Amino acid sequence: MNILAISGSLRRQSSNAALLRAMASVAPTGVRFVLYDGLESLPQFNPDRDRESDVPAPPVAAWRAAMHQADGVVISSPEYGHGVPGSLKNALDWLVSSGELMGKPVVLLNAARAGGKFAQASLAETLTMLSANVLREASQLEPFLRHPLSGGPEPLDAELAATLRASFAALANALPAQHAGQ
């Protein structure tokens, strides 16, 4: 099972990226967990540069390839101004015409200890429009972290580890049979 993890934050010390690294630490055996780090390199989306005959810019081609290779997706995103960060929304806009998210299971996480519901709702709506399979029961749309994550290697509390393992199980269960056992 190949999981593409995306942090909606570009900050070096992002709590969302730390949450994704924590999730990677509890990944089941056989899971390839890739933290995508190319949001900042994507050009601004322009439909005039995304026509059928256009060759996508290298960062866009790499983004689409990473998404295409993923069996499932995990997105952990902050909320900026009651919305999804522009860099994450821009990345998703580059997938509208190419369809890499169609039918793909997606888990949403929220590393905020308070707030974030507006961005999570907006993100879920955008992903639904992209025909992604947003696994709402496995997502953490409301704040759920009791303690901030430092971003470094740290032991996870049992409750957080169990929550992240449950998200993995939901992703595996949402995959077609040929991918679920990988």
Describe this structure in words.
The protein has helices spanning 15-25, 58-69, 86-93, 117-129, 158-174, 177-180, and strands spanning 2-7, 32-36, 72-76, 105-109, 133-134. The protein has 182 residues and is an alpha/beta fold. The chain has one domain: 3-Layer(aba) Sandwich (Rossmann fold). The mean pLDDT is 88.
The CATH topology label is Rossmann fold
Trace the largest sheet across and list its strands: 2-1-3-4-5
Structural class: alpha/beta
> How many β-strand stretches?
5
Largest sheet: 5 strands, parallel
H and E order: EHEHEHEHEHH
Architecture, according to CATH? 3-Layer(aba) Sandwich
First and last CA, distance: 5 Å
The CATH top-level class label: Alpha Beta
Principal-axis shape equals globular
Low-confidence stretches: none
Oligomer: single chain
> How many separate domains?
1
Approximately what portion of the residues adopt beta-strand conformation? 5-15%
Radius of gyration: 16 Å
